[in-house]
Structures are given as structure tokens and as C-alpha cells.
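Appendix B, record 7
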Amino acid sequence: MKKNLLALFLALILALSLAACGSTGSGEPAAEEETPAAEEPAEEPAAEDAAADGEMTVLKVAASPTPHAEILAQVKDVLAEQGIDLQVTEYGDYVVPNTAVEEGDEDANYFQHQPYLDQFNAENGTHLVSVAAIHYEPFGIYPCKTASLDELPDGALVGVPNDVTNEARALQLLESAGLITLKEGVGLEATTNDIVDNPKNLEFLELEAAMLPNVTTEVDIAAINGNYALQAGFSSAADAIYTEDPNSEAAQTFANIIVVKEGNENNPAVQALVEALQSDAVRNYINETYDGNVLPIF
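C-alpha cells (predicted):
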């Protein structure tokens, strides 16, 4: 009997103890303990950057390395301030930059002049258009065996490009310098067959344009494209004995242009690019960087 009473007493104490553990001390049942919610991870800087990049408008532009990509680099920060991420891809040829824009892999390109663009569209069925002229690379007459035009001997040998477009441009330059006269109206389709007056009996060595800087010991003078003169280390301002007038038909015609696929002319990012390129800052950069081999035309 005493054992039973003792067991009953111990059970009662245990029950009271459990009840106390389940009480809040205010007579209310204890709230169920919640598992602490996981804290939201702090946003990493990389995620912030990714979000910012997501808000940027990407503008992809294909360009020749010199001077086009170099000029584009001058406006990258300006465009970034406007929410445009300018991405420049350099190409070493004159075909892929156009096909890439036609197919939508690039938004625009910057490497060519209008006559080349017109020819490319005609031959390839592409739909590319110019939105702005930025610069031109002036043809120059460079001294070779003969130091000046006044010293040019009778029968002198003159180096000129052998492709139709650039040869006509070189012949127009020689006409402007008073060395020859071309058939009236022949314009930028001129060949040596269109020379109607040649008082110094000049002879012509017709070569691939890129080769002309390499024959300076073989000819008296040479008419060389600005980009090839630049690559050869010649300065139009310091070395050429005669250069194209910026207002000449050739300079205006052969200005290097920003090109897009037809229908994208009014793309806000493209228009922002044009505005940035046609700025005083870019004009000053071109004039101060290229020794006259590249000149702004805006």
C-alpha cells in the first residue's frame, strides 16, 4: 500500500512538472516555436553588375582595326553614360562585316565608303544603307624618286592603284594637281584611257593599291590611299606633296560611313552612336592622331 501511494505521488509530481514546462507563466499556452527563417543572402556585387548590364542596350559594331575601331573606342564611355554598351568587333576583311550586319549578327559596321557599299549590295543582294559619314582617308601624291611636282621630268613614271574605283580617284587627284586632263564627265569611272591631255607624257604603273608604298624606289611619284599610307608610316600632312581637297567630289564620295541594315536607320542606339562620333571630341582626336591621313568630314 505504501509503495502504491509513493508511485502515485511521484506520478503526480511528474505531471505537474510537465505542465509547468508547457506554460508561458501567464496562463496562456506557449506559442509553437518557429524555425528561424533563413536570412535573404546579401546581393553580391557581381549580381548587381549583371543587373546593370541587363539594363544596358547592347550595340554591336563591326570595324576595321585602323582607324575605325580606334575612333569607335573614343565614344565607348560616352555611350555607356547613355545606357549603351558599345561592343566593337574587329575584322580584317571587307566582306564579313557586311554579311554580319545583313544577317543581324552585328548592328552596324564602320569600314567602307559608299561606292563600295553600293557595289556590295548589287553583287550580293544585301540591304545595307549608310546613316552617317564620319571621316575620309585622303589620297595623296607622294614623292618617290622625284621630290616635287615642279621637278617631275618628262616621261615620269607614276604609280596608281589598278582597281577601277581607286584608279579613278588617283587620276582625279593628278588632274587637280594640273598634271593631266581627263575626258569631260568621266568622273569617278575614269581610267588611263580617258586622259585627253598629258603634257609631261607621264607613264603609269598600275598596281594593287596596297603595293604602292613598296615601289617608291621604282617610280617618280605615287598616288596612294590614305589608309595604306598610314600603314606604311607616311604622313599625309608631312610627306605628301599634294592631297585631296576635303570639298572635292572624291573626298565627299569616299567618306567612310556608318552602315546598318535597311530599316534600322532610326534605331536610337545607332543615332546615339552617330551623334557621339560627330562630336568635337572625336574631330579633335582624329586631327591630333593621324597626321592628316585620316580627316573628319562632319
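Remarks on this record: Residues 17 and 31 are 18 Å apart (CA to CA). Confidence is low (pLDDT under 50) at residues 1-51.
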